[in-house]
């Protein structure tokens, strides 16, 4: 699912068409790309984010809308002007490629955030691998947008950066480290051990887990820390997760993924293989046929067969393996009491005395699995492509919505796209009291 050269070429054409219209209307305007297309962390269905810089007292939304309609670059009814939003934008869908585009004016924060993320991609080469998996995981559950209660791409990236900063054992700078283990431990942290009620995330100064009471002192907008409290490293008074009202649903699906994957790679599961699932990650992630057809259409129009063959090269060198019988990991779980950066032990760089005091429990559960991820000397593009196109099967029965978060259903087959019975967001507020356990640290 990582970007292919043909997909990048297609998106550049879309940007070029829109930029030509803007330049024709305002020759001195400066059009810049930000967001996932700028950082390279976009999925095939991701939007393109553009910002136009110019000398206007007010954003010329209506003028640009008329120009876009005149040149017929967007689908007839797709152009929408959101002039009442916090950041006024124009939304449209490109008529030729069906790529969605958001256009804003004179907003510098997006460009700065893209530059910030690029720096961390260089610092942590494993970051893109985890982001692609997690984005697809949340996308198929309708939890990848703030307005649906999910978390934004920026929030997700900051959560992964924090995880890599404070991870006690894995050297996240080494791209050959075990990605499978990192993924499982990410789900373990944010699905089971992280205390969303009392703890906030800080990226600055090497990263730390902070007491929300202390983070509130830095907030200048008058808001209290949200359930998913993430301090904006570019604007410390801003809580990036403030709009994610369904943060507990995100926690639940992370918990579910941890239960499924940790069982799938255990020695017991290896003794009784699940014939209904072709791969380990296929138990939690699926690609729809619609997305596969769309990518093939892009290949045919913007590329050739050679690029497709290149993407599939070396796919047998990447796999999940179960550990030996009754064998523990090479060291304890990073969230056990012995870990120097344990959730239940004092944190370095954190002003809170200990995260265990924030979570309300010192009893932390670890899992005994060993996941081996083997890389051959293939290119980064091949590895990223295989991580999605080969590890995630596109077939398999749809997961029953009932009991979806029941950890005992670890032998279930791959989860399809969200159905009407899965994750009923409209009933989330009614179930709010029941969805908040007494102790989130378990």
UniProtKB/TrEMBL annotation:
UniProt protein name: Terminal nucleotidyltransferase 4A
Similarity field: Belongs to the DNA polymerase type-B-like family.
InterPro entries listed in its UniProt record: MTPAP-like_central, NT_sf, PAP_assoc, Trf4-like
Cofactor(s) for this UniProt protein: Mn(2+)
Record's function text: Terminal nucleotidyltransferase that catalyzes preferentially the transfer of ATP and GTP on RNA 3' poly(A) tail creating a heterogeneous 3' poly(A) tail leading to mRNAs stabilization by protecting mRNAs from active deadenylation. Also functions as a catalytic subunit of a TRAMP-like complex which has a poly(A) RNA polymerase activity and is involved in a post-transcriptional quality control mechanism. Polyadenylation with short oligo(A) tails is required for the degradative activity of the exosome on several of its nuclear RNA substrates.
Low complexity bias: start-end ranges: 339-357
Organism expressing this protein natively: Oryzias latipes
One GO molecular-function entry: poly(A) RNA polymerase activity
Keyword Transferase: yes
């Amino acid at each position: 699912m990582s970007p292919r050269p043909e997909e990048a070429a297609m998106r550049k054409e879309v940007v070029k068409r829109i930029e030509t219209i803007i330049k024709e209307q305002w020759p001195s305007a400066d059009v810049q790309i930000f967001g996932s297309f700028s950082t390279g962390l976009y999925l095939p269905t991701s939007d393109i984010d553009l910002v136009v810089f110019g000398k206007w007292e007010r954003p010329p939304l209506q003028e640009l809308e008329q120009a876009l309609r005149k040149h017929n670059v967007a689908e007839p009814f797709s152009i929408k002007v959101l002039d009442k939003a916090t950041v006024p934008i124009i939304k449209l869908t490109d008529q030729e490629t069906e790529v969605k585009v958001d256009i804003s004016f004179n907003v510098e924060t997006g460009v700065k955030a893209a530059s910030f993320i690029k720096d961390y991609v260089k610092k942590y080469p494993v970051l893109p691998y985890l982001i692609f998996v997690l984005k697809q995981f949340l996308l198929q559950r309708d939890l990848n947008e703030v307005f649906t209660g999910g978390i934004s791409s920026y929030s997700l990236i900051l959560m992964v950066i924090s995880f890599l900063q404070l991870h006690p054992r894995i050297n996240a700078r080494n791209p050959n480290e075990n990605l499978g283990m990192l993924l499982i431990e990410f789900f373990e942290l944010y699905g089971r051990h992280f205390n969303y009620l009392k703890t906030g995330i800080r990226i600055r100064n090497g990263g730390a887990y902070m007491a929300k009471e202390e983070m509130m002192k830095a907030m200048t907008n008058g808001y209290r820390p949200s359930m998913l409290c993430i301090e904006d490293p570019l604007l410390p008074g801003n809580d990036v997760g403030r709009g994610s009202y369904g943060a507990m649903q995100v926690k639940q699906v992370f918990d579910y993924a941890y239960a499924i994957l940790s069982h799938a790679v255990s020695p017991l599961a290896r003794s009784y293989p699940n014939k209904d699932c072709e791969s380990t990650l296929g138990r939690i992630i699926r690609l729809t046929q619609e997305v596969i057809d769309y990518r093939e259409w892009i290949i045919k129009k913007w590329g050739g067969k050679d690029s497709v063959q290149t993407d599939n090269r070396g796919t047998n060198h990447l796999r999940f393996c179960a550990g030996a019988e009754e064998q523990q990991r090479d060291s304890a779980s990073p969230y056990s009491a012995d870990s120097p950066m344990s959730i239940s032990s004092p944190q370095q760089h954190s002003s809170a005395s200990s995260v265990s005091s924030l979570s309300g429990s010192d009893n932390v559960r670890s899992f005994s699995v060993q996941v081996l991820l083997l890389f051959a000397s293939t290119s980064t593009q091949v590895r990223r492509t295989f991580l999605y196109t080969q590890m995630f099967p596109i077939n398999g029965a749809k997961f029953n919505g009932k009991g979806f978060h029941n950890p005992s259903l670890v032998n279930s087959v791959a989860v399809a796209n969200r159905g009407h019975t899965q994750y009923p967001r409209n009933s989330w507020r009614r179930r709010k009291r029941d969805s908040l356990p007494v102790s989130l640290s378990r």
